[in-house]
Write a structure and sequence with these properties.
140 residues, 8 strands, Thioester_dehydratase-like, ChsH2_C
Length: 140
Amino acid sequence: MTGDGRPRSDLPEVDAFTRTYWDAAAEGLLLIRRCRAPGCGRAHHYPREFCPHCWSEDVTWEPSRGRATLYTWSVVHRNDLPPFDARVPYVAAVVDLAEGPRMMTEVVRCPERDLRIGMELRVAFREAAEGLAVPVFEPG
Ligand SMILES: [Zn+2]
């Protein structure tokens, strides 16, 4: 809940499967999923229990290096859902992780005029709630 009692829209649902991911995030580590099927071996994000490329269920957790490049972004000036309403303007972004997966996130600590397609980013974490950190990206 936000300070004024309205429900928040930014908190993920943590279930038995994604618990590993969120526990790592709280420690400052971004996890991705890596397929171990012969001939595939691709990484993906967000975490799924099977590989979205070949449907194999032989998929494991792997720490990401936390490096990415900016694919595209949109500066959000209006969002009525808490807590985003208190955070505008913010930079909603899609980034390409060094390991391959494309990820929806937010770019922080970067003025809008400095945003460039392909710019180098590194993961940072924002504490969204007690014990819950969400990955964002900053220049670096
Ligand atoms: Zn696969």
